Amino acid sequence: MYALSVQNLKKIYGNKLTALKGINLEVEEGDFFALLGPNGAGKSTTIGILCSLVNKTSGKVFVFDYDIDTDLEAAKSCIGVVPQELNFNPFEKVQDILTNQAGYYGIPKNVAVPRAEYYLKKLGIWDKRSQPAVRLSGGMKRRLMIARALINEPKLLILDEPTAGVDIELRYELWEFLTELNQKGTTIILTTHYLEEAERLCKNVAIIDHGEIIEHSNIKSLINRLNVQTLILDLRAPAHSLSNSKFHFRMLDELTMEVEVLRDMSINALINELTEQGLVVSSMRNKTNRLEELFVRLIAENKKSEAQIL
Amino acid sequence: MNTEHFKTVVAFRTVLRKEITRFLRIWSQTLFPPVITMTLYFIIFGKLIGTQINKIDGYTYMQYIVPGLVMMSIMTNSYANTAGSFFGAKFSKSIEEMLVSSMPSYVILFGYMCGGALRGLSVGVIVVFISLFFTEIHIQHLGIVILMAVLSALLFSLGGLINAIFAKNFDDISFIPTFVLTPLTYLGGVFYSIKQLPPQWQAISILNPILNMVDTFRFGMLGVSDLNIYFGFSLVCVLYICLLIWCLILLKKGVGLRT
Fold first, then answer.
1. Does the structure show a pLDDT above 80 at B233?
2. What is the pLDDT of residues A73-89, one digit of tens each?
3. Which of B8, B10, B89 has the CB atom closest to A108's CB atom?
4. Which residue in A has a C-alpha nearest to residue B11's C-alpha?
5. Residue A100 and residue B14: Cβ atoms within 8 Å?
6. Which residue in A26, A245, B220, B239 is a FRET match for B191, CA 20 to 30 A apart?
7. pLDDT tens per residue, range A15-60
8. DSSP letter at B198?
9. How many helices and strands in chain A, by DSSP H and E?
């Protein structure tokens, strides 16, 4: 059974803007799935349709086999959603936001109150439970929205850029928390602009651009398709060039070198060549995250092919 | 009760409790202003001007205007509650909390409708108490009073909800109360008997649904009426059913809520 199955999903807004051009998507139960795409690609529209904030124009959506056209309530009871924008009543108390949300799902108070306590403690905002949400910091508001999304203990958790604008420490904490949730069996769909986040957390990925899925595969096999990676090398002593190198390189400054390593070349060969030329490397890193590099290439290719069609 | 029914009841109670908590928390904006306004009405229209007006249908002017003022309070407060609360939730996007949940749209409707009606009825009871400081009231038909008050509160609560569903900004939720409801209420026999109007104006006034509601309510309180109370009840029931169906369709389709 798929946690999510989307078939030929189309969305045309009132202003004739086509946000989704008939996408197909499958997310397996227990998956940690990344839905990536540039701004305006259709990610939030897709998520909006899944949690019934956006009316679809056509197509079918199944959540754990529940058809949202005929079993909407049953489908929604399986979903928890963390939206991109804050969408709680800022004057409501933190704990009330959670218990009310539980109530909307038909969860009685005697179950909702201890559950709210568990998630507020888990996400480190229990001591703020009696404060109006407006008084929380930005990071705490994000955590509150995650706690709220979990109050119905959803089988499918959808996170729309959950770590946007949060500090590194909190981001790491959230990554840990989400990994734990996924390991316990919750299927997670994540949209993010931090591709390092997607690469680190997710097993499968779909890339959406201009309302179309341009890539839908396993992250590892996708990254393996990357035929070149760009490395940044920090040199211990100043250098100007690599003579007769089989690697494509350029000096960013006299102590920093950028080198492109093709898929059929090895990093060992690069190190050997540098050693032969007497260059000592003090540190080495990827110029960009590998998934990011691939993402940029795929989007650029899609743009080019669209331009050719036009 | 099966699980689904239990969940529906819990969801309804949650929306209702949230609504009640809201208007009680901001009592200085919801419950207190009508106390001031109605006290002024009783002093100015009842005491100062009313003493110089002849009895109407055997009642002093003060006694005559009490039912109208009670109804006016119920209607305006029921309307204002759902319009303000629902639009506020739309504006802050916290309405999405309900829309993404598994709660059916009719539960949202009934929760808001009953919450609004409860505020209207609470204010109505407060106004009745205030009126006791100024005059004596002997309710003639308690059943009619309660039924008409509840039906009107529910009807206007639905009206406010529909207004909020269509509203795009705060101006939109004040337009209907200011330019439609207030004139209809003031021309709805709150302060006068339509028998005092020329025949053609009487005929036009009968088309005003608020007049029928006020008149039926007045019959319940004082035992006197200008119009047929059965027509008044029927009118409120028909309007209520129409608005209820309309509102259900709007919420189901997500008009003004989903893009």
1. yes
2. 999 999 999 998 889 99
3. B10
4. A104
5. yes
6. B239
7. 788 899 999 999 999 999 999 888 888 888 999 999 889 999 999 9
8. -
9. 10, 14
User: Which two structure tokens, joined as six digits, stand for B58?
Assistant: 């055997």
CA distances from B52 to B32, B49, B61, B124 (A): 29, 6, 9, 27
C-alpha distance from residue B129 to each of A214, B26, B70, B257 (Å): 69, 21, 10, 39
For residue B249, count CB atoms less than 10 angstroms from its CB and return exposed for 0-12, middle for 13-18, buried for 19 or more.
exposed
CB contacts, 8 Å: B18 with chain A: 100
Buried b (16+ CB within 10 A) or exposed e, B142-157: eebbebbbbbbbbbbb
Predicted ipTM > 0.95: no
Rounded CA gap, A258 and A251, in Å?
6
Residue A200 to residue A209: CA distance in whole angstroms: 22
Please give the domain boundaries of chain A with CATH numbers for all domains.
2-219 (3.40.50.300), 226-290 (3.30.70.1560)
Contact residues on chain B for A92, CB-CB shorter than 8 A: 94
**Length of chain B as a residue count:** 259
Q: What is the residue-averaged pLDDT of chain A? A: 87
- Look at A87 and B92 and tell me if their CB atoms are within 8 Å: yes
Cβ of A106 within 8 Å of Cβ of B104? The answer is no
E strand or H helix that includes residue A72: helix A72-77
User: How far is A51 from chain B, CA to nearest CA, in Å?
Assistant: 5
User: What are residue A93's DSSP bridge partners?
Assistant: A132
**Count of CB pairs separated by less than 8 Å, A with B:** 85
| A148, A97 Cβ separation under 8 angstroms | yes
Under an 8 A CB cutoff, do A73 and B8 touch? no
Would you call B258 and A54 a contact, using CB atoms and an 8 Å cutoff? yes
Structure pTM?
0.85
